[in-house]
Amino acid sequence: MQSIESVLSEVKILHCLRELRNNKINKTRNFCRLKSVHVVKGCYPDQMLFAWDKFDAIKTSCNIRPDIFNEQQLFAVIEMEYGERPDTFCGGQAFSIPSNGLIITIIDYTLSRLLDNGCIFYNNLADNESLFNQTGDYQFEVYKTLKLHLNNEWHNCLLYSNVLWLTFLCVKLLELEYSRPSSKKHQVSLKNLEILQHNLKLSKSAVECLTDCNIIAFILEESQNSKSKMCTKVKSYWSEIFEIHLI
Description:
This protein is α+β, with helices and mostly antiparallel strands and about 250 residues long.
């Protein structure tokens, strides 16, 4: 169960990230937009308990079953929008990573840290020792590594944390079972992921990885080549159509 302070911190972070859509220096649409926040009181609804049980049966939840709360319990209901474009501006420099039609959206900021107008908003994980005792998923190894690098002082800034979470994504993507694992494109993509995971070990921040990592530069180049080939095919197609009509 979250404290009021941690909920307020998350809401503040959501609000600030929403404003990044219109920021001129650092701009991105990849954070899910906050629409509204409501505080409600009462027992956990039966429909939501059913959904929780269904998830727990499949994935095994790390949280306690919310039926323990009585009619005096307060809940924060956070309404968010879904679906954005994968474009980012960092320090005035534009980054656009090809996603092959996938919409990339970051939706959870519960454990995030943000500095706004000299005030730090964060969730003090030093108060949640049980988080570091959990095993079975790579994310818990990330938390333990973060704790070590931060010396358990979670108000501090650690750019390397983004590198750890990018590594986490690589690990998860490499663990997945795919429908066509033997295809050439799939094998190339897996190899690129493995190279990216290796190169991440040499990076100190996400920006450094994005600007210096050879495999990302290669992916961007391949994307541009694919677009160029597609444009050539389209031009050729319409040229043939035009010639047919002339005849």
